[in-house]
């Protein structure tokens, strides 16, 4: 029994997927829990766009983590599988990640910036 929640942290919007013999969960980083986690790089444009946020907590949501397991009990955290340093148009509030596999590729899609 893994317990509840499956992994520590303040996450939302879970997306589950099975690839081969591994289970994956992609989550929205909602807020700090224990040691704060942050994106480290921002472009000048992203820093300017961050001034438009309506909620300061959205400035923490600049990445997504993923978790993988082969047995649904033991999980491995994959930090920052998506980070806005790699997405020029996103500045804050990265949320609701989802993934599909097609044509021998993986496609991760998500929402970003204010609603």
From TrEMBL:
The keyword Hydrolase applies. Keywords: Carbohydrate metabolism, Glycosidase, Hydrolase, Polysaccharide degradation, Xylan degradation. One of its GO terms (molecular function) is hydrolase activity, hydrolyzing O-glycosyl compounds. Signal peptide: none annotated. GO terms for biological process: xylan catabolic process. SUPFAM superfamilies: Arabinanase/levansucrase/invertase (SSF75005). The keyword Plastid does not apply. Pfam families: Glyco_hydro_43. InterPro entries: Glyco_hydro_43, Glyco_hydro_beta-prop_sf, Glycosyl_Hydrlase_43_Enz. Belongs to the glycosyl hydrolase 43 family. This is Glycosyl hydrolases family 43. It comes from Bythopirellula polymerisocia.
């Amino acid at each position: 029994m893994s317990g509840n929640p499956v992994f520590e942290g303040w996450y939302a919007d879970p997306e589950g997927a099975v690839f081969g013999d591994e289970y994956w969960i992609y989550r929205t980083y909602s807020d700090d829990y224990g040691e704060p986690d942050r994106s480290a790089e921002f472009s000048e444009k992203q820093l300017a766009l961050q001034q438009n946020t309506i909620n300061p907590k959205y400035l923490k949501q600049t990445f997504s983590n993923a978790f993988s397991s082969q047995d649904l009990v033991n999980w491995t955290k994959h930090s920052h599988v998506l980070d806005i340093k790699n997405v020029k148009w996103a500045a804050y509030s990265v949320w609701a990640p989802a993934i599909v596999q097609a044509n021998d590729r993986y496609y991760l899609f998500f929402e970003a910036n204010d609603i």
